[in-house]
Design goal:
Shape: globular
Number of strands: 11
Radius of gyration: 14 Å
């Protein structure tokens, strides 16, 4: 079992920056690929970013490329999402998720079903 706890959400003005974190426990962190998803009110949960077990590979949804950066510190069992140039449409609850599979095709990287463990979410609100 893996426990994930997000932190760092809050209110920020458009154009500002915010970093959310996700602390993992219960399993060797370096054995997990990690992802970030977000869910706006009344909408489905959408993929944002993914990072491989070593951190060597990252993947992003087009709408955040160049603005968001996913990273991880395996010594601290933590994954981060640095969000810059925030827009009101980035407002959502942000969830981190863990994928224990040894291999995952790139086609599945953005699918919620590829992730077995989820945090409780942290609210990010971007004001215009």
């Amino acid at each position: 079992q893996v426990q994930l706890v997000e932190s760092g959400g809050g209110l920020v003005q458009a154009g500002g920056s915010l970093r959310v974190s996700c602390a993992a426990s219960g399993r060797t962190f370096s054995s997990l690929a990690m992802g970030w998803f977000r869910q706006a009110p009344g909408k489905e949960r959408d993929f944002v970013a993914r990072i491989s077990r070593t951190g060597a590979s990252t993947y992003y949804v087009d709408s955040v490329k160049g603005r968001f950066t996913i990273s991880r510190d395996n010594a601290k069992n933590t994954v981060y999402l640095q969000m810059n140039s925030l827009k009101p449409e980035d407002t959502a609850v942000y969830y981190c998720a863990a994928d224990p599979a040894l291999f995952r095709s790139s086609a599945a990287h953005g699918m919620a079903s590829a992730y077995d463990y989820w945090g409780q979410g942290t609210q990010v609100t971007v004001s215009s």
